[in-house]
Amino acid sequence: MTVVSDGEGVASDGAGRRGPKTGIYLLAVGVVIMLAGLLFGYDQGVISGALTGIQKQFSVGTFLLEVITSWVTLGAMAGALVGGSLADRVGRRLTIVIAAGLFIAGALTEALAPGAGVLVVGRLLVGFGVGVASVAAPLYAAELAPSRVRGRMVSLYQLAITIGIFGAYFADYLLTQGNRWRIMLGISAVPGVLLILAILPLPDSPRWYVKAGRHDQAKAALHKVEPGMDIDAELQSMEDLNEKEEKGGWRAVFAPAWRRPLVVGVTLAVLQQFTGINAIIYYADKIFAAAGFASPVSQSLATLWAIGAVNVVATFGAVAWVDRFGRRPLLLIGATGMGVSLIVVGIMFEKLGKASTSHPPTGTSSEGVVTLVALIVFIASFAFSLGPVVWTIINEIFPSHIRGKAVAVATGANWFAAWLVSQFFLSLVDLITEAGTFWLFAGFCAVTFIFVRRFVPETKGKSLEEVEVLWGDPKAMRRALHARGQGSAGE
Ligand code: BGC
User: Fold this and answer.
1) If we measure between CA atoms, which residue out of 50, 143, 37, 52 comes closest to residue 93?
2) Which residue in 15, 336, 373, 377 has the fewest CB atoms around it within 10 Å?
3) How far is ligand 1, taken at its centre, from the CA of residue 482, in Å?
4) Are 172 and 48 in contact (CB under 8 A)?
5) Cα–Cα distance for residue pair 249/232, rounded to 1 Å
6) Is the CB of 44 inside a 6 Å radius of any atom of ligand 1?
7) Could you give the residue ranges of the DSSP H alpha helices within 91-147?
8) What is the Å distance from ligand 1's center to 37 Cα?
């Protein structure tokens, strides 16, 4: 990862350059967050390919199959909620170690399961681990990264999620034949082990050390990631805020003073799911089949490349742009691209529906090709906007004394919304047709656009302490709500 200075004057040698050691620490934090993202993504994507083998071996019915599929998400929701308190109590770093441990235990339980019951336990454990990590890892990165690269650092998390999903699609494609579902599920213990190895030599975040009253360690951690900065002044600003803050119990999370960031975080988390991303990720094969991709091979290839690979490639856009152009422009442009492409997909399905009643589809029609292109635009638009930016914002808008728990609430809401969409997508299609469902998702894109314009402040380039002050400063908030594009934030 290259870390580019944007001229905020952070220097290690007094001449505007940071030493190689800083680069190594940031790189190591980047590796940690990427491994956590890989776990998340791989488990989102892998199950669809493993289901046939599981069904054959355990002869389970539809209900149990649904449980095996979707309870990872429910486990993750519970994990996310617990993860916040844990991250506040034992630190971000140790929480990540615990999450990885749970994850390894879950993956091995799945791989060795003698029956469906044990498999469900494994799925829940894995989900719980992913949920805990989905709170602790981005939090750790957001608190440890210097503000000029914070967005980029958290976007790496999303990049890794997309690589994990791609890897899972690929594993599905390679291992679907035969009875290799145990390998597919068990393999995910590997990034868990790597995650533990990667985080052990690193410090916790300076902000957590300050909260825990460990000032020397806070100083040492700051020294490692920002050796050239005025460490005493930075520490002082963290400590001043820390002293002013009341203790961060659950009541403080829901206190009126912090309602606005909580509403922004939870709403963005839910909208990230209600705009339909996981319906496409999970059911891509089925959607392509309905669009006229006749053979399973053509469906899985379309899914692998048009969804999996485009998702990875377009996320690089966010990694490059989020700290340059800011969060708001990416969200606004992305929501527009997603909405327009979903409207097109809906129109194509209307046409396909009418055509199939008169002439059943025999191959890929022009409507099928337009659907493919529109889905590519949808995935790309999500990948440089709502995917990474929502995670970035969730991890930077809360004040430090409630950050762990508040991030957990928003992340838990995200998992719950993901579960709702994946559980009910097929029923929704039965109820209001494919076209109606895609237009409903498009409607949520419009809601996202309006919500971001009105309520989501630009946080680019601000320190977490500056973001915290923003909520109580109407003038600064007005400026942040009208921030447009490059250079407009943080002025
Ligand atoms: C979402 C996941 C989704 C993934 C797709 C993430 O930001 O939270 O639910 O599967 O993006 O790339």
Assistant:
1) 143
2) 15
3) 28
4) yes
5) 28
6) yes
7) 92-112, 116-144
8) 10
Whether residue 4 is predicted with pLDDT greater than 70 in this model: the reply is no
Ligand 1 centre distance from Cα of residue 241 (Å): 33
Q: Report CA Rg, the chain.
A: 22
Whether 158 lines ligand 1, by a CB cut-off of 6 Å, is: yes
Our measurement of the distance from residue 223's CA atom to the centroid of its chain's CA atoms, rounded to an integer in Å, reads 29
CA nearest ligand 1 atom 2, residue: 278
Q: 343 Cβ partners below 8 Å, 6+ apart?
A: 438, 439, 442
* Average pLDDT for the chain: 86
Which residue CA neighbors atom 6 of ligand 1 most closely?
387
Pocket test for ligand 1, best of 39, 158, 384 (most atoms within 8 A of CB): 158
CA distances from 153 to 1, 138, 143, 340, 411 (A): 9, 8, 10, 29, 18
Distance 392 CA to ligand 1 centre (A): 13
DSSP labels, 396-419: TSS-TTTHHHHHHHHHHHHHHHHH
pLDDT digits (tens, 9 = 90+) for 130-188: 999 999 999 999 998 888 888 888 889 999 999 999 998 888 777 766 568 899 899 98
CB atoms within 10 A of CB 341: 24
Probe residue for ligand 1, chosen from 281, 311, 381 as the CB with the greatest number of ligand atoms within 8 Å: 281
Non-local CB neighbours of 21 within 8 Å, separated by 6+ positions: 224, 227
Amino acid at position 405, single letter = K
pTM over 0.70: yes
Q: Tell me the two tokens of residue 422.
A: 């994946």
At position 219, the amino acid (one-letter code) is: K
Query: If you average pLDDT over residues 274-285, what whole number do you get?
Result: 88
Q: Which stretch of DSSP H or E encloses residue 63?
A: helix 62-90
Instruction: Count the alpha carbons within 13 Å of 156 in the hemisphere toward its beta carbon.
Output: 25
- Is 265:406 a contact under the CB 8 Å cutoff? yes
How far is 103 from 124, CA to CA, in rounded Å? 10
Element (H or E) spanning 207, and its range?
helix 206-211
Chain-centroid distance of CA 33 in Å reads 11
Asked whether the beta carbons of 208 and 216 are under 8 A apart, the reply is no
Packing angle, helices 386-394 and 310-321, rounded to 10: 50
Question: Residue 281 CA: which ligand 1 atom is closest?
Answer: 10
